[in-house]
Amino acid sequence: MGRGRGRGRGQVNMRRIVNPIQRKVTFSKRKGGLLKKARELSVLCDVEIALFIFSPTGKLYEFGSPSVKRNLGRYQEVCASMEECSDKFQNTEVELLQLQAENMEKMMTYLERRKKHMIGEDLESLNYKELQRLEQQMELGSKRIHSTKKRLFTEHIESLKSEGAKEKYVVEAPIKIVERVEQDRDGDATPEEILPYQKSLHLSLS
Predict the structure, then answer these.
(1) Each residue of 126-178: pLDDT tens digit?
(2) Boundaries of each MADS-box domain copy (predicted)?
(3) What angle do CA 24, 30, 36 make, to 5 degrees?
(4) Looking at residue 161, what is its pLDDT?
């Protein structure tokens, strides 16, 4: 019979070796292997490496390619540059947040003034052109409100028609009110004109 294959290395338990002699032997072997791998990596891949190992007794083992001193200097320069960039980024972010807060405060102040102007307060702070522009905007808003009221009222009347009102006057009375409102320059009929229709509408629906 041929010689069988030998068993491969078993899985190593990654925990501290209790036996001091075995721990020392393992350190010596693995330290040499790590330094060898570092040298191979620097040659094969043309990279700069700095490796430090301190033994349990405090002894230093090091490897540097091309040298430990040069790589340490380069490392410090990179770290300083990264810290500087990080500080600049943080300062820029803080300044941006402050600017956003200032803009938000200005917007709130503007909206508060705008609200007062729309209800006729604090008008002394506006000049003639601003007052004229405000008046035009309020007139446009009033027309839109009136148009929306008319549409909703008409839709309500149409719904009464579809439900089959008992008396024709129940439907016609509100329509006449709408027509009277349209004819009125200010967009509102007088109470004396609306009251009879309201009473008739109430009696017809009751």
Answers:
(1) 888 888 888 888 888 888 888 888 888 888 877 777 765 544 544 455 555 55
(2) 7-67
(3) 140
(4) 72
Res. 184 pLDDT band, cuts 50 70 90: low
Q: What is the mean pLDDT of residues 52-58?
A: 89
pLDDT in tens, 27-53: 999 999 999 999 999 999 999 999 999
Nearest to 70 by CA among 86, 87, 50: 50
Name the residue with tokens 């439907």: 171
- Answer yes or no: are the C-beta atoms of 171 and 161 closer than 8 Å: yes
- pTM, full prediction: 0.38
User: DSSP letters of the chain?
Assistant: -PPPPPPPPPPPP-S---SHHHHHHHHHHHHHHHHHHHHHHHHHHT--EEEEEE-TT--EEEEEES-HHHHHHHHHHHHHHHHHHHHHHHHHHHHHHHHHHHHHHHHHHHHHHHHHHHTT-SGGGS-HHHHHHHHHHHHHHHHHHHHHHHHHHHHHHHHHHHHT-SSHHHHHHHHHHHHHHHHSTTS---HHHHHHHHHHHHHHH-
What are the residues whose beta carbons fall under 8 Å from the beta carbon of 75, sequence distance 6 or more? 50
Mind listing the pLDDT tens digit for each residue in 105-139?
888 988 888 888 888 888 888 888 888 888 888 88
Residue-wise burial string across 117-137, b where 16 or more C-beta atoms lie within 10 A, e elsewhere: beeeeeeeeeeeeeeeebeee
